[in-house]
Amino acid sequence: CETVQDDENTMSILVASDVHLGYIEKNGERGKDSFVALEEIFTIAKERNVDFVLLGGDLFHENKPSRKTLHTAMELFQKYCLGDRPCSVKVVSDQAVNFGHTSSSITCVNYENPNVNISLPVFSIHGNHDDPSGAGELSAIDLLSVTGLLNHFGKQTKLDVISLSPVLLQKGTTKLALYGLEKGSMRDERLHRLFLNHLVTMLRPKESLDDWFNVFVLHQNRSKHGATNYIPEQFLDDFFDLIIWGHEHECLINPQWNPIKRFFVMQPGSPVATSLCEGESKQKKVAVVKIRGREMKTDIIPLKTVRQLYVENITLADGVHPPAGSSPEAIEALSQAYCEEVVERLLLRAQSQKSGHPRQPRKPLIRLRVDYSGFDIFNAYRFGAKFADRVSNPENIVHFLKKSVKKIRDDLDVKDMDDLIGAEVVENVKMEDLVQEYLNSKDEKEQMQVLSARGVSQAVSEFVTKQEKDAIKELCCHQIKKTKNYLQEQTFNLDQNEIKEQIKSYQTERLKESSTKESQELKEILERTK
Amino acid sequence: CETVQDDENTMSILVASDVHLGYIEKNGERGKDSFVALEEIFTIAKERNVDFVLLGGDLFHENKPSRKTLHTAMELFQKYCLGDRPCSVKVVSDQAVNFGHTSSSITCVNYENPNVNISLPVFSIHGNHDDPSGAGELSAIDLLSVTGLLNHFGKQTKLDVISLSPVLLQKGTTKLALYGLEKGSMRDERLHRLFLNHLVTMLRPKESLDDWFNVFVLHQNRSKHGATNYIPEQFLDDFFDLIIWGHEHECLINPQWNPIKRFFVMQPGSPVATSLCEGESKQKKVAVVKIRGREMKTDIIPLKTVRQLYVENITLADGVHPPAGSSPEAIEALSQAYCEEVVERLLLRAQSQKSGHPRQPRKPLIRLRVDYSGFDIFNAYRFGAKFADRVSNPENIVHFLKKSVKKIRDDLDVKDMDDLIGAEVVENVKMEDLVQEYLNSKDEKEQMQVLSARGVSQAVSEFVTKQEKDAIKELCCHQIKKTKNYLQEQTFNLDQNEIKEQIKSYQTERLKESSTKESQELKEILERTK
């Protein structure tokens, strides 16, 4: 839109997401990539003189970032966000409601705090990596917000019904209502169900409803990972003008028009490739969104310090033609030579596509997805060692796969090789699902009686991914207490066997309850998608 | 000294130490005690209008404080240390040297940072609980310093020679040279040795040497825990006017005059009882030290929100006199009744000694050290349950001991029962010593060949007390690499047995080296103490 100019009525916002600070921080080669990316984002924000930075979650990679990562993040915020530049965007909503959810000491947006001198405000929701956990239900980004370095918005405290109160921002005549949805520890399925049941409500400004430009920031699965564990765009309210979709790492930041809902969707993606897949190999970008009244204009800005990533799918059978009677060693040598050729070609491409930015890392990431059907695999580690000086991931350049016979289900959106090739799917299996499957596969005799497989798998997940040392203990205490209470209510003078029976029937009851809920959901979905 | 008045030439400093933020934070009763203590310290500092707060280390209890503890600490610093009050103490030394040791982004004392508005400056060294660890060698207090909330001084980076550069402070005509000694991960023994060998140097201001009031803050063992793992006062330079001694939890904050060294020693102690011993049961206090020129005056201020602690040593044989032929049950009932009587007496005393401060916790800590010689022990947990509503530590009110026959060594300073009663000594045994003893006690066949018992015990300690997940892995990698290098240098074409021999002789060599060092130290000590 050409009417949007830089003037006192135009709000300009740098949009980015999923910086994953501290990602593989101990890797000597790549450990600093996430911090370099944040510095570039902040530098662009300052050069473009934006009013604020808006982040879509997963600022930190680990739920409990290391001290070093926290410290470096704080240094960067200190360096780029403090200073004498005045902020001309006013917050006209209740600031304590918007930002004070985790600490009563936060009563306003950071740049109105008289004790901290903010030049570049940052607004962020948390993501699934840096979601709240432990005592006080705090996220790692709350350590930035309590020290006045970041404005954390969008926190939900209820699990059964969600009502979102926007941050209302005003610059001159332009009014922006900023909604954030943080699911916290809520599973995608549950949020999906809340949307289905119309239990997610957007609060609207009382006055001059049509003057507001409405932005919704969320951090959820956007691609289908199953029937219910993603959020379809059609779930979202159509009064929104712009959706900023965090969590998905592929950069699709050019606003995509949804003609049914009549809003734009921007998916900033991540500046750091946390998995070596095709989606991550696309050019990484951020955007400056300029809003004037209800009009919007977007400048897309490629990031120049991001480590290059090239992913190539090859099939040994296509490129390797050993003469009949070749020895296994000779065939292996040919396979390796073929793969080396591809790596060399990708390295040449990387060289020619360098951004020229002095901080762009010299060594790219290279990933060959090698279909080796009909061949033997070779030592991928030794293969990679040859490129140790030129590739930043020599240990895993080659990834061997075999085309699986897995049937492609028509009802799933198959976007890339990952859905086709069985071996790769393993990478996406969640540990908690494995635990649950394992526990459920036990003989009846060996099955747990007080705990549920689902509860244990979730507690194990908390323990491992969030390093919540007490998660399993707490689950056990909770469930034992609940079962004891049930027994006290239900039973009078039972002998040991009868108590066992009662415990069993209590568990069956609980299981039935939760599966009824799930089947209801499925029914609703089916009805809706008809 | 009566010449010290509040005027523009008088520097006034609130002195405290060992706040141990986050101590047993999950304890519903006592988990907040450390935070209440810090609030009281800050409140006193503001009421007394001091120029700054000076802390002697162990601000945090855990090396890796929980997110909740960090967050609460930051909230408190935000609440009490930010604001519009000007600070009239100037730093005249090189501020980047004083405070920028952990981050190049810290270039000055926090109240000269134009982007943070400090009303109450805090200066602190770290202690043994919050000492630096992990990547970047950062302490938990560095997260406060990088966000401008605290001035972290006294960091040493070298392990072989220490030279302390003071923070030079000036207010009007008064000049204060503030020295801090942080040993980091250095063992007390090593520091002891450095002092003995005159490898600890205090840098002095170049001009008007005699005008400076010299304060030394250290966080070390002050009481003898053995021949060399403490720092005797006579090791310290005699140009100091005041020593502030952190680490020891007993409050001995009234300045003690050392007539030989001609300096005062203040031991602030800890406001939170982390062990239920006699030293901790003394009244907890802080001090306001006023300095004018080379004169000093001290106001001692009792803390009013500290949880009361009463420790009493009783001997069942003294108070329980069962009639001849009493049943064991009857004797137990009498023992319990005797103990209950003592608890009731202590509770009455606690009631009468309440400070009257609304935030002082209602329930005191009570510890009976019960010498049960000649009697059976009873269930201490069930005993405590009777006092659950009136005592904050019902689970461990009673501590059973037997007078041990352990010989009291004349060369040790025996201050309290702990040194006399064998059972109690176990509490003070260090886990790393146990590991080392265990490993050394193995048969020769089972002894480790590449690692040393000392190395493993230290790595285990890092792993457990600092939650350094990679400590053991790193030790193994380091030692294997060193041994490999040694073998490559020493050997040509050895067979397997010969290699084993070489590894063994290498280990013996290393052991000899380190024990030579130790015996040298002992010799030096003996010579010195003659």
UniProtKB/TrEMBL annotation, chains A, B:
Subcellular location, record wording: Chromosome; Nucleus
Short name of one Pfam family:
Mre11_DNA_bind
Lineage at the top is: Eukaryota, Metazoa, Chordata, Tunicata, Ascidiacea
Species of origin = Ciona intestinalis
Which keywords appear in this protein's UniProt record, sorted alphabetically? Answer: Chromosome, DNA damage, DNA repair, Endonuclease, Exonuclease, Hydrolase, Manganese, Meiosis, Metal-binding, Nuclease, Nucleus
Q: Which GO terms describe its cellular component?
A: Mre11 complex; site of double-strand break
Protein's name in the database: Double-strand break repair protein MRE11
In Gene Ontology terms, what is a biological process of this protein?
Answer: mitochondrial double-strand break repair via homologous recombination
Task: Indicate the segments forming the Mre11 DNA-binding domain, all copies.
Answer: 296-463
Which residues participate directly in catalysis?
Answer: 129
Chief localisation class? nucleus
User: What are this entry's molecular-function GO terms?
Assistant: 3'-5'-DNA exonuclease activity; manganese ion binding; single-stranded DNA endodeoxyribonuclease activity
Do the record's keywords include Transmembrane helix? no
